[in-house]
Amino acid sequence: MQMKEAIDADPSIKLIFLCSPGNPTGTLISLSTIRTLLEYENYKGIVAIDEAYIDFAGAESSAVSLVNDYANVVVMQTLSKSFGLAAIRYGILGVSVVQP
After folding, report:
1. Are 55 and 21 a contacting pair, CB within 8 Å?
2. Distances (CA, A) of 41 to 11, 31, 35, 36, 71
3. Containing domain of residue 69, as a range?
4. What is the pLDDT along the chain (100 residues), one digit of tens a residue?
5. Is residue 57 part of a domain?
6. d(CA 68, CA 12)
7. CA torsion angle for 56, 39, 73, 20 (degrees, to 10)?
8. Which CATH number belongs to the domain containing residue 38 in this structure?
9. Residue 100 lies in a domain
């Protein structure tokens, strides 16, 4: 995985930003690939996942379920793409809350 090589080469990386599904190809990043990155022992940062087009891919493709299991993941969604509500500027953010 090229991301692991980049992380190993530069330990100052603290934020990885992923788009899934990507625009304009619609390419999805599998949840297993995201889990592998979240569990990589050499990475101590945050993984932010932009799911602006997730409504076109299906709910089972969303990384929102990972928020309950990982403290270092943020999942962002918007209503501007599939619902045509760009003028409202309303989005959805999923973050995990780590309790002591």
Report:
1. no
2. 12, 18, 12, 10, 14
3. 2-95
4. 788 999 999 999 999 999 988 878 888 999 999 999 999 999 999 999 988 877 777 768 888 889 889 999 999 877 655 555 555 555 555 555 555 4
5. yes
6. 26
7. -20
8. 3.40.640.10
9. no
